[in-house]
Amino acid sequence: MNFSLYNNRYDRVARYLHALIGLALAAQIVFGVLLDDLAPKGTPGRASVINLHKSLGLVLGLLIVLRLLWRLGHRPPTWPVSMSGAQRAAAQWGHRALYAAMLVLPASGAIGSNFSKHGVKFFGLALAPLGPDLPGVYKFFNTVHELTAWLLAALIAGHVLMALKHAFIDRDGLLARMSLRG
After folding, report:
1. Which of 118, 100, 109, 112 is nearest to 155 (CA)?
2. Cα 149 from Cα 76, distance rounded (Å)
């Protein structure tokens, strides 16, 4: 493994936000997929489970915006010289797709919920809706939300697989750029 990249790392804030958001996104996606199992439609506890998902999604959305703003203000480390131009371009587009999906997912959920009869309750506090109950608007944004969740899950899987490839096959030290150690 090339440990010379250990000094060519993301800063501490970026590394911790990456870990926190990565774990939280994975948990929130699983939570969303399991919503109907955790609280089937028509059961008394469904509203509180869905509102917890919405509340956590809003917090996660704010963390994602913070991470994006931090990233825009802090230059990332350089790519390993062993990566070809095509690999660098693929990595750059993969990261862009991750950020786009991470922004669309909570935004579509929040917008859709604001045009439903249930609205958004942030940890029990009812937020003012953006508009009236418009089932067609809700359905559109809910569909975007669900499709984006699946897309983001696939992008996360690809991101993790590429990180593992760099760690165990290429052994180019790329994974050390995001290590929480040090």
Report:
1. 100
2. 26
Query: Measured between alpha carbons, how far is residue 154 from residues 19, 86, 157, 161 in Å?
Result: 18, 21, 5, 10
Q: For 80-111, what is each residue's pLDDT tens digit? A: 888 999 999 999 999 999 999 999 999 999 99
Tokens 């350089």 locate to 78
State the CATH number of the domain containing residue 27. Answer: 1.20.950
Q: Which residue is it, tokens 């371009």?
A: 89
CA-based max dimension of the chain: 57
CA separation for the pair 56, 122 (Å, rounded): 8
Write down the pTM of the prediction: 0.91
Q: Which domain holds residue 26?
A: 3-178
What is the domain count for the chain?
1
